[in-house]
Design a protein that fits this description.
357 residues, two-stranded antiparallel sheet, 11 helices, 10 strands
Length: 357
């Protein structure tokens, strides 16, 4: 199974380039060194992703479990080198080992697979049982995690600003959801469609976390990457879906730049036109819908967002307004003119994105 026609080579990381740029300029070598090396590795992987798209990725043979709707996970250890995938350390169904990082990655892949299958009847990332491969202990002090179009990769962090990237299950779900987007709407990774791409990953990453913890919308913290920041950092997470712009305010990282509505939309040439920054606007819209409806956010609110992502009507270059209008239509189609429809309209109105003609 392949991605949509016109597939673009997207290399998606959980830590935005602008955050690493800030760290790379620090006078503290313990902070600047890992950030600079991470930026260099990301540039290499981004180029590799582009070449793979041009040349073609190797074909993937689907295991028999694929047809049965079961996950097929394989974990690899890079042993702090950069050759992918590394040495195999755990396969599907094998017992946990002593490496907590491997065990967390294995569990996170499974949690992501389970949510998509049980809630949205989607069999793995591509809908056809794609094996889920992941590499841990990538590079030295690597401050990122990424989906490269074929597999997940996790760094251990530098211990100064970022901890092990397998700690937050929503980071795992976030990156794997880039794969779901790759195989469905294939949103262009720039500007508003790029911010929607990032937002979809935050939405479903958060839902995977809530599903795993058995949390309702009211119970959830709506934070992305909670537990990832080292103790010295003044902050609670990478992003807040509930209150964009409040996740951190640190003397090294600076202040969380995410806007909460279109009045504060950030126009920038950095970060692919601010894809990790302006994603705060659709993130907040989803939170508002989930909060208004109550209960489990992966149910009604999640069903509406999933229907738009996979429904075939979302253009690759969709704007926030395009996406908003489709969510209004999806809410009406699935639930009529009741609470769901009203919640969606009200949410987009709050973040000042036009959702009706």
């Amino acid at each position: 199974m392949t991605a949509n026609p016109g597939f673009e080579p997207v290399f998606c990381t959980i830590i935005p380039p602008h955050v690493l740029d800030t760290l790379a300029q620090s006078d503290d070598a313990a902070l600047a060194g890992p950030a600079r090396r991470t930026l260099e590795r990301d540039a290499i992987e981004r180029t590799h992703r582009r070449l793979t798209t041009v040349i073609g990725a190797p074909s993937v043979s689907l295991p028999k479990e694929a047809a049965e709707g079961k996950p097929h996970r394989t974990l690899y250890d890079a042993k702090h080198k950069t050759d992918l995938p590394g040495r195999k350390v755990r396969g599907e169904g094998e017992r946990p080992g002593k490496d907590a990082t491997v065990n967390r990655a294995y569990a996170g892949l499974g949690a992501t697979f389970e949510l998509y299958l049980k809630t949205y009847q989607r069999n793995s990332i591509d809908g056809g049982g794609l094996p889920l491969n992941a590499t841990v202990h990538y590079s030295e002090d690597y401050n990122n995690a990424f989906w490269n179009g074929e597999q997940m990769v996790f760094g251990d962090g530098d211990g100064e600003i970022f901890l092990d990237f397998t700690i937050p299950v929503d980071v795992i779900g976030h990156e794997l959801t880039h794969g779901v987007t790759q195989y469905t709407a294939n949103l262009t990774y720039f500007g508003q469609p790029g911010a929607l791409n990032e937002s979809m990953s935050d939405v479903f990453g958060s839902l995977i976390k809530q599903y795993t913890l058995g949390q309702t919308a009211a119970d959830a913290d709506w934070l992305i990457g909670a537990g990832l920041l080292a103790p010295r950092v003044t902050g609670k997470a990478l992003r807040s879906m509930k209150e964009p712009g409040t996740a951190y305010d640190d003397d090294v990282l600076g202040k969380d730049p995410q806007p909460a509505d279109m009045d504060h939309y950030v126009r920038t040439g950095r970060d692919n036109g601010g894809v990790h920054i302006n994603s705060g606007i659709p993130n907040r819209a989803f939170y508002l819908v989930a909060d208004a409806l109550g209960g489990n956010a992966w149910e009604r609110a999640g069903q509406i967002w999933y229907a738009v992502l996979t429904g075939g009507e979302l253009a690759q270059d969709a704007s926030f307004a395009d996406f908003a209008k489709l969510t209004v239509a999806a809410a009406r189609a699935k639930y009529g003119d009741g609470d769901e429809h009203k919640a969606v309209i009200d949410a987009w109105s709050t973040v000042k994105v036009p959702a009706t003609d």
